[in-house]
Amino acid sequence: MYFYGTTGVNKQGNLEIGGVDAIELADKYGTPLYVYDVALIRERARGFRQTFLDQGMKAQVAYASKAFSTIAMIQLAEEEGLSLDVVSGGELYTAITAGFPTERIHFHGNNKSRDELIMALDHGIGCIVVDNFYELDLLKTLCLEKNTTIKILLRVTPGIEAHTHDYILTGQEDSKFGFDLQNGQAESALKEALRSECLEVLGLHCHIGSQIFETTGFLLATQKIFEKMNRWKNEISFEAKVLNLGGGFGIRYTKEDEPIRPSQYVDEIIKEVKKWIQIYEMNLPEIWIEPGRSLVGDAGITLYRVGSQKEVPNVRKYLAVDGGMSDNIRPALYQAKYEAVLANKPLEKPTETVSIAGKCCESGDMLIWDLPLPAQGQEDILAVFCTGAYGYSMANNYNRIPRPPVVFVENGQDRIVVKRESYEDLVRLDLSLK
Ligand code: LLP
Description:
By secondary structure, the protein is α/β, with parallel strands linked by helices. It has two domains: 8-37 and 297-426, Lyase, Ornithine Decarboxylase, Chain A, domain 1 (Beta Barrel); 108-291, Alanine racemase (TIM Barrel, Alpha-Beta Barrel), CATH 3.20.20.10. Helices cover 30% and strands 24% of the residues. It has helices at residues 22-29, 38-54, 71-79, 89-97, 114-122, 133-146, 185-195, 216-236, 262-279, 293-296, 330-334, 423-426; strands spanning 8-9, 15-17, 20-21, 33-37, 59-64, 83-86, 105-107, 127-130, 150-157, 179-180, 199-205, 242-244, 286-289, 300-312, 316-321, 340-342, 352-357, 366-373, 381-385, 406-410, 413-418. The strands form three sheets. Strands 4, 14, 15, 16, 17, 18, 19, 20 and 21 form a nine-stranded mixed beta sheet that branches. Strands 5-6-7-8-9-11-12-13 form an eight-stranded parallel beta barrel, surrounded by five helices. Helix 5 (114-122) links the parallel strand 7 and strand 8. Ligand LLP binds at residues 64, 67, 85, 108, 168, 170, 207, 210-211, 246-249, 290-294, 330, 334, 389-390.
């Protein structure tokens, strides 16, 4: 069994997270339940920041809050000195409500609305990552209307194909994101932005994809960006103060995954940047990164109560839990794989292979295919590992299933940070015909 962070087995033989018994958590808060190992999130955050410090680099590590955006998580990010990447008015609102320093917020998105941009300008956020010509125009108009200025990065698409699932690829030429670096769009956008008095161009942004296990894509993207930046330095005297290389660092979900250490991505990126600034005789830009999954992914565990079973003779055994694609849509959407144990007997030897079904009315609602488990009893608690990123944040109310609560655990203490949705919450926005 592979345990993450502070996860282990306690004297009672139960799974323990952050010094708290998982079975006690399930009994206290009910299931399904998202549990986060706060110490592990802190360790990851410090790891990224320390790597830049060790190299004497000016940097910002911006937590990509799309991975898991709640007030408590954003306050934790602030405690750890992270910056924040938001991609919508809702994520921005969450950050503002959490009291996150707005000058450390970076606003992303390929179709930011007028209202969202106004919200960002009114709250004095640190920088807007401009994605397209439409947004460039809109932002200039709004700044003129409000007689204000704003710092921006231009999001460029370097034409890199990272090795990951098609839906989470973003750096390739045929992408809905960013200004293409090769076909001249990025250059036109840069010239247009530099002509505007209300936009302060800090530099460039690029994000090549998510759940990436090698550094090649990052290094290639860096190289392509520097080739262009060298041209821009010589032809239009533009030098970037900031180079944001996005997130996407892969994590281990199952034994098939072999990620490299987070610091290794950063180390190699820094080396590559230093190489190109020497070759092209440029000033060293600040490096920003935007990890989401690699900060919170393996810190999250979902606890479910085991329910019905169905045996299809000579085919398989289905074991159903009290959640599913409503709290974790990743298996259904990306064929994502997970590992799990019975939290009340995590070390017991598996005796059979079962497939974990969700409770949604959809055959595709399977959480794990072919999971080795010991004999299961009524009411056993199944703990699914590594659900911390894009689990809660992609949760939904399919079949009008209420979203589970979120609990933070650290140093033997548990603390609820998102309440369980109630049936009343589900109909709160509905209007009656009667
Ligand atoms: N920066 C930008 C511009 C991004 O688009 C993303 C992720 C990140 C940073 C953070 O990437 P991370 O470090 O978390 O890999 N829902 C999918 C993942 C979509 C990622 C979208 N963008 C999943 O569950 O795998």
